[in-house]
Amino acid sequence: MAREVLISDTVIELAEPARIPERTFVGRAEELQMCRVAWGVRPDGTDFIDSDVPPLSFRLEGAPGLGKNEIVYEIARRLGLPLYIIQGHEELTPEDLVLLLTPNPKAEYSDSVPALTLRASPLSTALYTGGLFFFDEINRVPERALSPLASVLDGRQYIYSAMAGINIGPPNQEARKSFRFCCALNPSLSNAGHVLPEYIEQRTLPVIEIDHPPFEDLHQIIQASLDPSPDFLSAFTEWYQQEERADVSVRQAIALMNYAMSYEQQVGGAKLGVLQKVSSFILGRKS
Ligand SMILES: Nc1ncnc2c1ncn2[C@@H]1O[C@H](COP(=O)(O)OP(=O)(O)O)[C@@H](O)[C@H]1O
Ligand SMILES: [Mg+2]
Questions:
Q1: pLDDT, tens digit, 9 for 90 and up, residues 87-145
Q2: Where is the secretion signal located (predicted)?
Q3: Ligand with an atom nearest the CA of residue 85
Q4: Are residues 159 and 66 located together in one domain of the fold?
Q5: Does ligand 1 lie within 6 Å of residue 89's CB atom?
Q6: Does the C-beta of 23 come closer than 6 Å to ligand 1?
Q7: Percent helix, strand and coil across the chain, each rounded to 5?
Q8: Which of 23, 34, 114, 165 is most solvent-facing, going by the fewest CB within 10 Å?
Q9: How much of the chain exceeds pLDDT 70, in percent?
Q10: Is 197 in the same domain as 71?
Q11: Nearest-angstrom CA–CA distance, 159 and 153
């Protein structure tokens, strides 16, 4: 696929899609359904519904490690479409959402190669190619950096580069129809003063809350990702019930089991005892 394109007479290099981990996805039927309805995806997840109703840009909200990214990955896996991701952070600038100017290492050896390359951001690339786009941790981004999103999310479906003085949007109807936007945030950050500006909040709906999965799903995720012995899985179940650690996230539970399994193998000890021992330094103290 040609990664270099000409937009308004400007040569631009497109971004690479995200590499989605191959993984067995567990549960979350209701959350997936809510996302698919927003995006106009068929119930089996494999294609878009042929409709003129514009898709909605859903927002996943939940504490870290509960599976927000994984839900977006699963939707992209099922659709078989490239997924482009921007990771939100405090230093992000408006132009980071659009175009980046980077030195071209090949220019050193040739006069005919320009010294600088214009690179499309993951968002610009998704807009141009009609890909799926995921803005992770969007509430960590300073408010002014989000301003280019207004034209992306209000139906105009393009983004303006102040640096190049051009709009980047879909070059054809096909790309226009398949572009999708979603985002995720951890709402506890918002209590610390990081709130989304009202116009972004209203353009990233519906809000889909991602809570702790039921224990059976957690059990199955651990089984699928670490393949522990049945004894170790039983010990985990026992530990979970005994300690009443319903606050443990999926990511923490995987790390805990990973560490406990290695610990048992290398140091030894009874499985439940090992879990009790290592949980204090994997999970910290119970709050
Ligand atoms: N439904 C799920 N099926 C399989 N693995 C999951 C699921 N949800 C979460 N995980 C695993 O838990 C970990 C954290 O998930 P992630 O999506 O990164 O959380 P978040 O984005 O909410 O911080 C990942 O390693 C992921 O593989
Ligand atoms: Mg995440």
A1: 999 999 999 999 998 887 777 777 777 778 899 999 999 999 999 999 999 999 999 99
A2: none
A3: 2
A4: yes
A5: no
A6: yes
A7: 45, 15, 40
A8: 165
A9: 97
A10: yes
A11: 10
The domain of 232 spans 215-283
Q: 13 and 86: one domain?
A: yes
| Residue having the nearest C-alpha atom to atom 4 of ligand 1 | 25
Per-residue model confidence (pLDDT) at position 114: 75
Pocket test for ligand 1, best of 22, 70, 83, 208 (most atoms within 8 A of CB): 70
- The last residue of one of the domains, among 209, 243, 268, is 209
Alpha helices in 2-81 (DSSP H): 29-39, 68-79
- Looking at the fold, whether 246 and 178 belong to one and the same domain comes out as no
Same domain membership, residue 201 and residue 239: no
Q: 112 CA distance to ligand 1 centroid (A)?
A: 47
Task: Find the DSSP H helices in 40-121.
Answer: 68-79
Number of the ligand 1 atom closest to the C-alpha atom of 136:
21
Ligand 2 centroid to 266 CA: how many Å? 31
Which atom of ligand 1 is closest in space to residue 72's alpha carbon? 17
In the chain, the number of structural domains is: 2
26 lines ligand 1 (CB under 6 A): yes
Same domain, 193 and 58: yes
How far apart are alpha carbons 92 and 96 in whole angstroms? 6
What CATH code is carried by the domain that includes residue 197? 3.40.50.300
> Among the three residues 209, 225, 259, which one is the final residue of a domain in this structure?
209
Which listed ligand is nearest to 67 at the C-alpha?
1
Ligand 1 atom nearest the C-alpha of 21 is 27
Residues 181, 69 share a domain: yes
CA 250 / ligand 1 centre spacing (Å) = 6
Q: Is 181 exposed, middle or buried (0-12, 13-18, 19+ CB in 10 A)?
A: buried
pLDDT higher than threshold 70 for residue 1: no
Residue nearest to atom 17 of ligand 1 (CA): 67
